[in-house]
Write a structure and sequence with these properties.
single chain, about 400 residues, alpha/beta, Rossmann fold, formyl-coa transferase, domain 3, six-stranded parallel beta sheet, three-stranded antiparallel beta sheet, 13 strands, about 15% strand, elongated
Length: about 400
């Protein structure tokens, strides 16, 4: 087996729901040992989100918690805190997504823990960050998508604001957190120093505004919803076909020239309304009417063949089943099978980062609640079976 890039890195994961678990799943996929710390008898909130459930296991939870070991621990009990402090001494990274100050109130904040482990990298994922007037507001994906500006220009013109169909703020905050942790590990390798890594759902949305923020900075006007149209490029959107829709992206004048020939629109290639991209954007309604007059004469597959042969970027609008069963997804190993201890065979999405020398892999299925508690306490803390059983009896585990 090839070496895994994060093998030897141990992460104590106190996070729940999606942002933190997505972060630690990314680290686990690349070989880190993820110890998922959960509340006894309750566990991660996502264990209870559904339907659907698969033999009692939440499909939501199963989707983002592979390559982790579950340990239950009651941090409201003093003995639980002491076990936690011992675990911290053996870990490289801690990830939590509580409201700011929650861990400090328990006596387990970064200032407390760095005394035990100066090399510890402490990652906090929150709704809005630890400072500012919204710092102590509860953070949920829907709220962050709304306050981060993205919902304001997502949707059809004149329609209500729309969120993205996945928990984009959660997922991207998790990705930013994983990136920050890796940067901190690189710094620690050079200096031996741990540090705090912070990100939030709100900041992840602001960061993704990118060119939409640039448009506002340049004009002073907030972008408006434009459906599937690109605000700065035309034609670049979804077009109706005989049997559905196709996405077509004509990003420069060379492609525009070829596109006109393929679609039988040669007479419009040099039309003063359409001969440059800014003019095509300005005269988009007329442009779209002309193009859909052609695309609706063909099926989606017919158009794909025509456009592919000409080198015009295009693609169908697939539903989830079509995307996950596509030859491309299967060729890139983006659908994988694992064996869960109670559910049996489950399918999960694959690892999107492929590495030639140190690839990630799927080692552990999503754990059942507390599945590895005894194993971890024996392995890291050297506790005996009797000591572990006593902790169970006291409600610590």
């Amino acid at each position: 087996m090839k070496p895994r890039p994060l093998e030897g890195i141990r992460v104590l994961d106190l996070s729940r729901a999606l942002a933190g678990p997505y972060c630690t799943m990314m680290l686990g996929d690349m070989g880190a040992d993820i110890i998922k710390l959960e509340v006894p008898k309750v566990g991660d909130d996502a264990r209870h989100w559904g339907p659907p459930f698969v033999d009692g296991e939440s499909a939501y939870f199963l989707s983002v918690n592979r390559n982790k070991r579950s340990l239950t621990l009651n941090l409201k009990e003093e003995k639980g805190k002491e076990v936690f402090r011992q675990l911290v001494r053996h870990c490289d990274v801690l990830v939590e997504n509580f409201r700011p100050g929650t861990m400090a109130k328990l006596g387990l904040g970064y200032k407390d823990l760095k005394i035990l482990n100066p090399r510890l990298i402490y990652c906090a994922i929150t709704g809005f960050g630890p400072s500012g007037p919204d710092a102590h507001r509860p953070g949920y994906d829907l709220i962050a998508q709304g306050m981060g500006g993205i919902m304001s220009f997502t949707g059809e013109p004149g329609g209500p604001p729309l969120k993205v169909g996945v928990a984009q703020a959660d997922i991207t905050a998790g990705m930013f957190a994983a990136f920050g942790i890796l940067v901190a590990l690189y710094h620690r390798q050079a200096t031996g120093e741990g540090q705090v890594v912070e990100t939030s759902l709100f900041e992840s949305q602001i960061a993704q505004l990118t060119f939409q923020a640039g448009r506002y900075f340049a004009t002073g006007e907030s972008p408006k919803p434009m459906g599937n149209q690109h605000p700065l490029i035309a034609p670049y959107e979804s077009f109706r076909t005989k049997d559905g829709y196709i996405n077509i992206a004509v990003g420069n004048n060379a492609l525009w020239s070829t596109f006109c020939k393929v679609m039988g629109l040669e007479e419009y290639e040099k039309d003063p309304r359409f001969d440059t991209n800014p003019k095509r954007v300005e005269n988009r309604p007329d442009l779209i009417r002309l193009i859909e007059g052609r695309t609706t004469q063909y099926s989606t597959d017919e158009l794909r063949g025509m456009l592919d042969d000409a080198g015009i970027p295009n693609g169908p609008v697939w539903n989830v089943q079509e995307a996950l069963s596509s030859p491309q997804a299967l060729a890139r190993e983006m659908v994988c099978e694992m064996t869960h201890p109670t559910v049996g065979k489950i399918r999960v999405t694959g690892i999107p980062i492929k590495m030639s020398r140190t690839p990630g892999n799927l080692r552990l299925p999503p754990p059942t609640l507390g599945q590895h508690t005894d194993e971890i306490l024996r392995e890291l803390l050297g506790l005996s079976s009797e000591e572990i059983e006593e902790l169970h009896q006291q409600g610590v585990l």
